[in-house]
Design a protein that fits this description.
Length: about 375
């Protein structure tokens, strides 16, 4: 018998058009007529999605304001600016609207607005999270991070180093998964975020923390994403495919919330320290380069992945899928010095990335980190 602990889930609301329920959830958590800050990805303003969310909240008598001053992946300066606005407007709840960056920002804003501390205080669990966090409603508009159901927030600190904050308090209260919000996501972003979600599920199903309970979500996520990623890229308006990806990324999020990630995330976080590479693509490519090596650590777990992907050879099936998405495979021109894999290996050995190194069934030695970095840099 394998003992395990499975963490609680946020309330998950899934289905086309379910954004309409945002106001009643916000009112329930924040109070009638309360102030609510929406932390939104700026691209959603031009798509009209932020306006829709704002209208839903205002029509219900809530005092809603938007912070959409995010630039790329979350940074302490942006989180602190949003937190200052939340405090000024006396926000009683935070809505995160967007991809992983907006959701991770929103989660930390809910902490910083309550405590008055800057986001950097919470890096790597340096300060306990406040017990009076503002409630969080997470509305993902990409199918990727699964941040809407996790206890983690990844951001860049003042030294531009990618770090994380972690704690029960950061888990959103409610996740609203409305596939209508994801039909406008362009092909390359659908590909990168979808592969990130798939890697979450594969890593959670195969690292040394994986459990039977968590495999329910991880393996289902693998099936949903494998079956629907190409379909959604080819037909962006395919609501069924979009819904399956959104559910797959949510299940992938649940999977990493319970069992964590592994080597591919160690590598993508390390790459982010060296050059501004989008997380989804970096992670997808890191898995592409290292899956074969990692799979020798736990053939049985990878047999489970193979079954979920409907194939006998998950490494080949994964490579076929990555190439079919049309994603740029080579890292040439991405701002990394490809002649120096040892610099990447150095980051892979850093304390901030240690948990993702240690979770592998097959522990990479320092020398193996350089070999693995070379595999990533050699992708063509
Ligand atoms: Fe990820």
């Amino acid at each position: 018998m394998q003992p395990f602990t499975f963490s609680h889930l946020p309330e998950i609301i899934f289905g086309a058009g379910r954004l309409a329920g945002l106001a009643s959830k916000a009112e329930h958590l924040a109070g009638k007529g309360a102030a609510v800050l929406v932390v939104a990805d700026p691209t959603l303003t031009t798509l009209g999605i932020t306006g829709r969310a704002l209208k839903i909240l205002k029509n219900a008598g809530l005092e809603a304001q938007v912070f959409d001053g995010l630039k790329g992946e979350p940074k302490v300066a942006d989180i602190d600016a949003a937190s200052a606005l939340a405090r000024t407007m006396k926000s009683k709840a935070i809505v995160g609207l967007g991809g992983g960056s907006a959701l991770d920002t929103a989660k930390l804003v809910a902490a910083c607005a309550a405590s008055g501390l800057g986001a950097q205080s919470y890096q790597l669990c340096e300060t306990p999270l406040p017990t009076n966090m503002l409630p969080i409603i997470a509305v993902p508009t990409t199918a990727g991070t699964g941040s809407e159901v996790t206890r983690v927030s990844v951001f860049a600190n003042a030294d531009k180093v990618k770090v994380w904050a972690w704690g029960e308090e950061l888990k959103p209260n409610v996740a609203i998964l409305d596939p209508e919000l994801t039909v406008g996501v362009p092909g390359p972003i659908t590909a990168a975020t979808g592969l990130d979600a798939l890697v979450h599920a594969i890593e959670a199903a195969t690292n040394k923390h994986h459990t039977d309970g968590n495999d329910l979500y991880a393996l289902k996520a693998i099936s949903l994403i494998t079956e629907n990623l190409e379909r959604a890229i080819k037909n962006p308006n395919d609501l069924e495919a979009r819904g399956s990806l959104l559910l797959g990324s949510c299940y992938g999020g649940i999977a990493i919330d319970n069992c964590g990630t592994a080597l591919a995330h160690n590598i993508s976080h390390s790459m982010a320290d060296l050059a501004p590479i989008a997380h989804g693509r970096a992670t997808g490519l890191a898995m592409l380069a290292t899956m074969e090596w990692v799979s020798h650590g736990d053939p049985q777990a990878f047999a489970g992945v193979a079954k979920a992907m409907g194939t006998a050879d998950p490494v080949k099936a994964y490579e076929r899928l990555v190439r079919a998405t049309g994603m740029k495979i080579s890292l040439e021109g991405d701002g990394l010095d490809l002649s120096k894999p040892e610099l990447l290996a150095e980051r892979m050995a850093s304390p901030a990335n240690a948990p993702m190194r240690k979770s592998n069934q097959r522990y990479p030695s320092d020398a193996e980190l350089v070999d693995l970095a070379r595999l990533v840099y050699g992708l063509r």
